[in-house]
Amino acid sequence: MDPVNVNPETNDTSIRTLMELPADFLPKIAPYLGYVDRVNLSKVNRALQDEVKSWKPEVKNIEVQCNQNRSIMTLDGIQVHYENVVHPGGRPTTTCKVTHVGRRSKMLQNANQLDLILSDVETVLRNPRAQLENFDVFSTTGFEQKIIEKLGSLVPQIEAKSVNLTMHCSTGQETILSSFQSGVLESLVLNDMNCPGIECGSHINLVTGLEQCQRAKRVTIFTHSLRPANFQLENLTGVEILDLKFQREHLTMSIATAENWLNILRQETSDLPVFKVEVPFDFQLQDFVRHMGNVTGLAVQHHGNMCGLNIAAKPHDYLEMILQLTPHALYGTLRITRKLRVRA
């Protein structure tokens, strides 16, 4: 890089603006600027906008919200709104308004907001330098198939550490997940609440059977199903925490279900370190303490809103089972943790 000339009498440089810097200077500062900083820099003038575009900014976080006539893509905190223009009276048009927050809107003819946002998401994801921290998709009813087709076509392109899929559909999430590179995904949140209860177990097993999920550290699933026999926990070979959330108040977990989960985790095929369920209970803690004490012959500790016991599993480990009721609420938490035996 050429040296910057300094006037010794005024102690001033001959460079007054960024554009007067040597040509190879601006690319050198790119690694020190986050996505938001790069966007702001590109707003200064046309030349800097072209310069920033040539850097191919590395986006770390993408959130996509798809609705009927308006969707939002958020890139590292910068929002882009896509909206189908509607005439007064509700008559639809073929015009889409795209608005970058802080900029003037663009009107695009013969365009649909969902097609545009998915095309832009694909552009970001196909950037070979894209290594995402978080990728979140939120969709209302009626748009899932397009989203599944678009994201599923990127196999196996996407690198992301955390994925959240909240979609009003009973199938298809596994197609999207197959687009993520295995070994990179660390945390998965899957909202399965719209899957029929009788299909929940098989659908979750299909998802957790993917290599991308098996090697994740934490899997969180919102589900209808709490029937232990429906879950193939042996698939989750690399998962450190399986967290199930069950929010329908009229469907609750019984003592028998909690006991069955414990027995499943004691089997030789399961090595899951931590299993957690957040769900309404249909029993009192003192009933659970009495039942588990009779079944296992072990002392069950009970203190206030929490009870627990330790029970042998494999030759070298044991399971710590803790139930805790949330005060003034209709639900509680079951947590089973696998721990190594301490040699005497």
UniProtKB/TrEMBL annotation:
<protein>
    <recommendedName>
        <fullName>F-box domain-containing protein</fullName>
    </recommendedName>
</protein>
<feature type="domain" description="F-box">
    <location>
        <begin position="15"/>
        <end position="58"/>
    </location>
</feature>
<dbReference type="InterPro" id="IPR002900">
    <property type="entry name" value="DUF38/FTH_CAE_spp"/>
</dbReference>
<dbReference type="Pfam" id="PF01827">
    <property type="entry name" value="FTH"/>
</dbReference>
<dbReference type="InterPro" id="IPR001810">
    <property type="entry name" value="F-box_dom"/>
</dbReference>
